[in-house]
Write a structure and sequence with these properties.
By secondary structure, this protein is α+β, with helices and mostly antiparallel strands. The chain has helices at about 5, 20-25, 30-45, 100-110, 125-135, and strands spanning about 10, 15, 50-55, 60, 65-70, 80-85, 85-90, 115-120. It is about 35% helix and about 25% strand. Helix 3 (about 30-45) runs parallel beside helix 5. The model is unreliable at about 1-15 (pLDDT under 50).
Amino acid sequence: MPGVFFRVQRQVHGCRVGNSRQSKMLLKKETANRITANIIRAVNMQPGCVAYRINNVGVWDEAKQVHRRGNTEKGLPDVIASIRGRFVAIEVKAGKDRLSEDQKRRAFEIEKAGGVYFECRSTDSFLVFLTNFLKK
């Protein structure tokens, strides 16, 4: 997986953040959307790997002027992936966000079935996880 650290870009308040000492000082907290996009990009760059975002957010129905709930089951992870034949579920959390009870139940179910569940709080933590996972 050489080079994946350099190909995943983070945008922070409109600034591209690289690996220089100066740019690390500019690094602010990442949003969940940015972390999710980086996870998908990093996984899809690896041979034998694929990742998809699970959109479980509701939508505003302009015609009816109501908010419609998402139609997925509660607690599903934000990203599902097949990493060299292994099922990996990734729940992205930013800031002080915590796993809900539904998400904890899904984590248990996935691990019980032989899958891997990872709670991700930053692009960097995911890249460490992915690097170690690919070494297995």
